[in-house]
From TrEMBL:
<feature type="transmembrane region" description="Helical">
    <location>
        <begin position="65"/>
        <end position="88"/>
    </location>
</feature>
<keyword id="KW-0812">Transmembrane</keyword>
<dbReference type="InterPro" id="IPR007577">
    <property type="entry name" value="GlycoTrfase_DXD_sugar-bd_CS"/>
</dbReference>
<comment type="similarity">
    <text>Belongs to the glycosyltransferase 32 family.</text>
</comment>
<dbReference type="GO" id="GO:0000136">
    <property type="term" value="C:mannan polymerase complex"/>
</dbReference>
<dbReference type="GO" id="GO:0000009">
    <property type="term" value="F:alpha-1,6-mannosyltransferase activity"/>
</dbReference>
<feature type="compositionally biased region" description="Low complexity">
    <location>
        <begin position="28"/>
        <end position="39"/>
    </location>
</feature>
<dbReference type="GO" id="GO:0006487">
    <property type="term" value="P:protein N-linked glycosylation"/>
</dbReference>
<keyword id="KW-0472">Membrane</keyword>
<keyword id="KW-1133">Transmembrane helix</keyword>
<feature type="region of interest" description="Disordered">
    <location>
        <begin position="482"/>
        <end position="537"/>
    </location>
</feature>
<dbReference type="Pfam" id="PF04488">
    <property type="entry name" value="Gly_transf_sug"/>
</dbReference>
<protein>
    <submittedName>
        <fullName>Family 32 glycosyltransferase</fullName>
    </submittedName>
</protein>
<feature type="region of interest" description="Disordered">
    <location>
        <begin position="25"/>
        <end position="45"/>
    </location>
</feature>
<dbReference type="InterPro" id="IPR029044">
    <property type="entry name" value="Nucleotide-diphossugar_trans"/>
</dbReference>
<dbReference type="InterPro" id="IPR039367">
    <property type="entry name" value="Och1-like"/>
</dbReference>
<feature type="compositionally biased region" description="Basic and acidic residues">
    <location>
        <begin position="495"/>
        <end position="537"/>
    </location>
</feature>
Amino acid sequence: MDEEKGQFSAQSSPIREPSFRHTFTMHSPVSSSSPRSSVGTWSPATPNFSHKFRNRVPTQMRRCIPIYLACVSLILLILNADLLTVAVPKSGGPVFKRGGTRTNGGHASVPMAQGFPKKVWQTWKIDPLQFEERDSTTARTWLQKNPDYRYEVLTDTNDMGYVELHFGPGGINRPDIVEMYRSITATIIKADLLRYMVMYAEGGVYADIDVEALKPISRFIPDHRYDENDIDMVIGVEIDQPGFRDHPILGKKSQSFCQWTFMARPRLPVMLQLIENIMSWLDGLAKEQNVPVSQVELDFDQVISGTGPSAFTEAIIKQMNLDRPKGTPEISWDLFHELDESKVVSRVLVLDVEAFAAGQGHSDSGNHNARGALVKHHYHASNWPSRHPRFNHPAYGSVEQCNWDANCVAKWDADTAAFALLNEEEQRNLIAFIQREQQELLERQEAFLKALAQQQVQQPLFEQPALAQEPQAPIAVENHHEPERLPEEVEQNPDAERDSDVERPQVEIAEVERTEVGRTEADRPEVAAEGRPEEHE
C-alpha cells in the first residue's frame, strides 16, 4: 500500500525531492544493530533513485548522454594532444615539444637547431643602432656568417627588464636572483652575470661585443666526429699554463676556459649553479667589507676568480665530475692540457685553444689564419681593468706584462723578492731611479714619433708614382769595341773590317756572360747575402 500510495502521489501532486544536503546526511554511520540499519545507506545507484531519475529526464536526452560524453572526451583529447609528445632532455633542461619550440613560463619560444637555439647573444652599453663603427663591424660578422640565426643585444637600458621577465614570477620565479642583479653596480660583474643568465634562460651562442666571427657557428661542432645530440655545451681553452698554477698571482688564472664566446643549451644546471656561486661570493664580500653589495670594491684578480674565466672554469669542471660515470677517474685540468684536438667530456665539447682564443702569444694558441680558428677577439672593449686594477708592484709593475713568458716571470719574481729585502729608504731610491728611466724612455719615444711625423710631412714615405711616358725611339749607343766578324761578312765586305767609324751594336754583355761560365756562387764576390747578384755599372 505504501508503494502504491507513493506512486499515486507522484502522479497526482508533485512531491519535493530531497536535496543533496539531506541526501548526504543518510551517509552517517549506522551500527548494524540499529533499527535503521535495515534501510541501508543511500547512493545514486539505488533502484529508487534511478527510477525517479528516469522519470525526471526525457528519454531522448538520456539516449544522447553517451554521445555528449564522447564528444567532450574527444575535444579534450585534441586540445591536449601535444602532451603525448613531451620529451625531457638528458641534461635536465627545459621541456621540448613537437615542432622544435621550448616552453618558457608562457613566454615566446626560441627556434631550436637540433637542441641548440639558433640565436646569437651580445651585451653592450647602447643599442646596436648606436654602435661605433668598430663594434658594428664585428657584430655584422655574426649575421654574415650565420644568416639563419637570430641576433639580439641586451643593453644597459633593457637588461633589467629581461632579468625580471625570465627570472621573476612569470619565469623561473627566483626573486633572489632578480634582486641581486638589481643591486650590483660594477658593470663587469653585471656583464659576466648577465651572460650566464641568458644562457640559462634561453641558451644559444654568446659572444662579447669585440669578438669577430671567422667561421659559421655550424663549424663549432665537427660533423664528422660528433653527434650534436650528445653535446649540451661547446667551450674552448683560453689559457693553458699549468706550470704557473702555484704562482701567488698567476695561479688562479693559469688554466681556464674561454667565456667571451661559448654555446649552450638552455636550462643547463651548470649555468644556474654558476649564478648562485656568484651570488654567494658577492654576499661574502659584502659581509667582509661591511657594506651592501652595491658598494663592494673589487680588484682585477677578484673579478677573474669571482665571475670571470676562473669562476666559469671551476663551475664547469665541478659539473663534469658530477656527471661523469661512476668508477671513472676524477676530471681535472690535466685532461685539457696541451689539447691538440677537441674532445667531449660529460656532454661538454671542449675545443683547443686555437678555436676561440687564437693569436694570444701564449698557450700555443697559433694565429687567426689557422683553419681551426673560429673567432677573433679584438679586445677593444676590455677596458674594465682600469676600474678594477690588478696588482701593480711600485717598482716593477704587473707580472701580467710578461704574457706568460717563463723567463720574464722568473725575473719579476726575483726582482720583487729582492725589493722586499731593502729598507724603506733604499726602496724609495730604487723606485725613483726606475721612474726616471721610464720617463726618459717615454720622452725619447715621443721625440722619435714627433720627428717621424715631421719627416712624413716634408717628404712622404710613399711618393706618387711617376706618370708613364710615351715610348721613344731607341737611343744610339756609341761603342768603341769592335766585335768579332764572321767569315761570311769578311768575304762579302772586305773593306768593312777597316771601317772603324761605323757604329755597331754593343756586345759587352755577351762577353761578360761568357767569362762567368764555369764559376760557382762562392767564386762570385758580387753575390749578395740573400743569394741575388748585386747590380754594377
